Prior knowledge:
By secondary structure, the chain is α/β, with parallel strands linked by helices. Helices cover 64% and strands 8% of the residues. Helix 9 (201-218) runs antiparallel to helix 12 (254-269), helix 21 (473-484) packs across helix 22 (491-521) and helix 21 (473-484) crosses helix 27 (641-650).
Amino acid sequence: MGLSKDSTGIKAASTELVIKKVNETDHVIALAGNPNVGKSTVFNELTGLHQHTGNWPGKTVTNAQGYCTYRNRGYVLVDLPGCYSLMAHSAEEEVARDFICFGGADAAVVVCDATCLERNLNLVLQTMEITRNTVVCVNLLDEAKKKRIKVDLEKLSQLLGVPVVGTAARSRKGLDKLLQTMSSAAGGDSLPRSPVVTYSEKTEQALGRLTPLVNKICGDAVDPRWLSLKLLEREENLLVSIGKYLGFSPQENPEISKALCQVWEELAKAGWTPEELKDDLVSGVVQQAERLARAVVTVEHEGYNARDKRIDRILTSKLTGFPIMFLVLLVIFWLTITGANYPSELLSGGLFWLGDRFRELLLLCSAPEWLVGVVVDGVYRTLAWVVSVMLPPMAIFFPLFTLLEDLGYLPRVAFNLDKCFQKCGACGKQALTTCMGFGCNAAGVIGCRIIDSPRERLIAMITNSFVPCNGRFPTLIAIITMFFVSTAGGFGASVLSSMLLVAVIVFGVLMTFAVSKLLSKTILKGIPSSFTLELPPYRTPQVGKVIVRSIFDRTLFVLGRAASVAAPAGLIIWIMANVQLGDATLLAHCSGFLDPFAKLLGLDGVILLAFILGLPANEIVVPIIIMAYMAQGSLVEMTDLNALKTLLVENGWTWVTAICTMLFSLMHWPCSTTCMTIKKETQSLKWTVVAFLAPTLAGLVVCFLVASLSKLFL
């Protein structure tokens, strides 16, 4: 590598990212690449199930490590965040650059897309400036073949001076050769160094003056040419990292500092500013990438992406883009609603049956009634509700969402909504995090890591709860079905339910725009940032892998978090429903206290209390309402919507109550899982409180207006 073993070995890396080696002789491989080049597919195919994920220390950027073996040698693959450049402008680019520089990797594999090699070569060249132990993996050769694009891999290897391997990772083609090449690069000595990129005459003269001096003072600790570039570039956060890992700051050395001043004086006399130097450094890399691409890429058919362009003209058109988005949303929710009903009922019946057997077992063991009540009626039944209500919809929604992601449609959604979010002073990437919120708001908050600007990331986190998660769908669907659609069921009823649900969600999205605009004009003022939005080619999703990935990475993760907070909530609910204070339970007293305020919102005390007690998990709101109306001591299951509607009407519900309950379900405080996630992501109690209050105040105002208007006109 370009950096010494002492300064960048595993010991140095251990202060940042802990490398999970199996044996001391294992090699560490950094896996880098642009987004949408199949890097994750290469990583998954090479490492299989031998993976684990976490966060980079001090960052909210996810890292993944995997393990594989080749010829009795172990390899730890570190899957770096997808980035377009190592000239860091985001947290993802920063951790990728710092790991390649200082992470102790024995080699770096840069994955490229054969269908757009020129853009990918920018990252290759920048990586090679840091380390010559680089392997270039030209992936997606199967797609390139379909588009009649040829890449001369041998010539590219000769021009770059590093190994180049062609792969089609989805079908495992070329991966064995990649392993072999990776093994040779990691185990061999550093290749002879020569300038990877040639810059303009002025920059090269400046480098010519600095490089010998840097080499003299720093020795072989770093590649002197690369360090000289960074000193000229004045990239402060990287210079801090260099000082941290090398034990001294090169720019503070008197000789280097004096030489830098002289170089900058000469550049200033020549009319160059620091910005112009940076532009020259960027253009040098870009021009070299262009030259390489022209030399090795042959396009036999210029209209190779004509089909994608035709589809994009429809999906991203101002005329058809939004209607198609709404139609796709409608189909997804219809599939989720109709598909989740039967497994949810089956799962609920099975879990409650197990609960009854568990009760019998405790009674056989002569357990006291209060203990049976706490454990079975409180904790277990609450968990059973959460699992039976959340698991089936998430098991359907998350794979559908991931299929759209694999297909390449979600970046088009972000493109369509980009102008809307820009007008609100937010970032277009918020469209993607908003979509993730439909499955789980906590997952949507975590997804906000893709937004580079801290201000815009906060806006996205605060407003993510304005779209309903899986936990709120059952409440919305049940109310829509009972009060606005026939409970008889059938295809027509399910479609109408889906359409009304989409209408509610669209209102939530409009509120997202409104609150984002308000935040950007008040406590989070700022100018919307630009970002690189790549529209990847349309690809056939790998259905099997999508299902496995979405269930394990998303569904079970979210379900586990919800279950962890639902258990203590079940205990509290049971206590409130069973402890008498005078002639009524604590639940009745609390609902009675809240009733006058709730009436102003078009609700009643029971409904408002149910939302408060549903803070751990929105799935238990309706069961609490039923339990309170029926004066039961535990959560009650009522699957007959006709009977449920009768119960609600007998307790004073009207269509106004139904609308206000839906609106408050759409806009109220985030669940405790989401609140904890916001606190973890922001490391700030202040912004967690803001994220709690923003949807709550919006819900209170909207419900009050609807209730007041209904009294005026009815």
